[in-house]
Design a protein that fits this description.
Elements: H1 2-16, H2 21-35, H3 40-43, H4 54-60, E1 64-68, E2 72-78, E3 83-92, E4 95-112, E5 115-125, E6 132-137, E7 140-146, E8 159-163, H5 174-181, E9 196-199, E10 206-209
Parallel strand pairs: 4-7
Antiparallel strand pairs: 1-2, 1-10, 2-3, 3-4, 4-5, 5-8, 6-7, 8-9, 9-10
Length: about 210
């Protein structure tokens, strides 16, 4: 839960920037969700699971992946064995959609050494989608709506594709390469250079690994 608490705060700061009126309220909203969040992501991951893909789960542990659009930001934080916490925020002006959730990915297939197929085998919201709260901050009215994630379906029938950093750029489709640029990432001339995750759909939005410059 402590990691989730920090993750929610970091996401809020990245999304809104310091100094604007919505930051303080957004932090309070997310912190209240985090304090009541489902701790299964952390607690269940303490038990090592026997898997032929354990090296990939270990690689993902501690990684943060994100997607950023003009007014939409979504990110997930990986724990051990495919468990993850996620957060989303989307808004224009004084109306904001936000979400917190957690779950577990299972690797189902090795496509090649740098590409794997995944599915979500457990998914839970840490908020109640549809709930709306209105707050007045310094004389300005804000509306916060609890929403569902825009990237993850939350069911085991949907496949996701995981790309590792050494995936050859020439083997990636042009839609994916264009999509990662939305989040400010640029694939290398020879290799991708970072972890990427998307729904098994060529035009799906792609989460990319957060890396320090």
């Amino acid at each position: 839960m402590f990691k989730k608490f920090l993750f929610a705060i970091s996401l809020s700061l990245i999304l809104t920037g310091c100094g604007n009126k919505m930051v303080q309220n957004s932090n309070l909203e997310k912190n209240s969700f985090s304090s009541n969040s489902n701790e299964k992501s952390k607690n269940q991951s303490n038990k090592k699971e026997n898997s032929p893909y354990q090296d990939i789960y270990d690689l993902l542990d501690g990684k943060k992946l994100y997607f950023q659009g003009s007014s939409w930001f979504e990110a997930i934080y990986f724990y051990e064995d495919g468990y993850f916490d996620g957060a989303m925020k989307m808004g224009n002006g004084y109306e904001v959609d936000q979400s917190l959730y957690n779950g577990k990915f299972e690797i189902t297939e090795k496509i090649d050494d740098q590409t794997y197929r995944l599915k979500i085998i457990r998914f839970t919201y840490d908020i109640k989608p549809g709930e709306v709260s209105k707050k007045n901050i310094d004389g300005t009215d804000f509306t916060f709506k609890n929403a569902k994630t825009h990237i993850f379906q939350g069911d085991s029938s949907t496949s996701y594709i995981l790309y590792l950093p050494d995936k050859k750029t020439d083997d990636l489709n042009s839609d994916l390469l264009k999509n990662v640029k939305l989040s400010g990432k640029e694939a290398g001339s020879d290799k991708l250079g970072f972890i990427a995750l998307r729904k098994d759909d060529k035009k799906a939005d792609t989460l990319v690994e957060f890396t320090k410059k």
